[in-house]
Amino acid sequence: MRFAKGHGTENDFVILPDPDGETDLTKETVRLLCDRRAGIGGDGILRVVRTRALGEALAPAARTAERTEWFMDYRNADGSVAEMCGNGVRVFARYLLHAGLVTGDRFEVGTRDGAKGVSVEADGDITIDMGRVEMQGTSSAKLARQVVHGAQISVGNPHLACEVEGPVADVDLSQLPELDTEAFPQGANVEVYAQVAPGVLEMRVYERGSGETRSCGTGIVAAASAATPEGEGATWRVRVLGGECTVYLDADGARLRGPAVIVAEGETVLV
237: annotated binding-site residue? Predict the structure, then answer.
């Protein structure tokens, strides 16, 4: 099977073109493909499938995706299905352009969180309309060496975005965070962030199903939303281990802008 490899601020993905939905991706296959020693290596899988090929498998929450031609079937590195991935949508959009599957600088991509608008910027960055961010109260998590408190947020998938004192580099994200299972029955991504300059955040993230990653697009949006006073708009530059993205927050929701790169193509015998 053909594959490509891409990343958005070093959040990297194996891209599997499967336009007619003929590949049955088991958890074991996803884990092997994402294995950085025994497989291709990545934080997750982006399966490129025509939306109409999914038929009744399209979840109710994704119904607005029915109007899109291409659907991003995203899997975490552990094989679990994820609702949304901000960096993944940018990389998915870049692959569609790279492969000639779409044309123009404005189109939509289907996700389990519905249709997402894509804008290709003049400098090559890609901006994704992430929709409305849902603030759901507060919660906490126990990390390896400390307890952090933050905002419970949905960006199509669940997050706990926690402001911390001192450098985010000092936070130990080596272990799976312990979350309130009532607040997060399906688990969540946990972000730690700090404001380092006016309009600038630094952030690290432990992603559900993948561990600490170099970047997380929905997590970047969650951190920016948590740092913004309720009812206000804002523009944030968010620095992560793999680079920097920009978040625009206004009454219409959130937009995420950043790079997306295809770095390799090839053929795998693992599927």
Answer: no
Q: How far apart are CA 235 and CA 246, in angstroms?
A: 7
CATH topology of domain 134-251: Diaminopimelate Epimerase; Chain A, domain 1 (3.10.310)
Tell me the C-alpha distance between 3 and 37, whole Å. Answer: 17
Annotated active-site positions, please? 85, 216
Check whether 218 is labelled as a binding-site residue. Answer: yes
pLDDT at residue 57 tops 80: no
Query: How does DSSP classify residue 81?
Result: B
d(CA 94, CA 89): 8
- Do 112 and 62 contact (CB within 8 A), yes or no? yes
Burial of 22 per CB tally in 10 Å (0-12, 13-18, 19+): exposed
Q: How confident is the model at residue 271 (pLDDT cuts 50, 70, 90)?
A: low
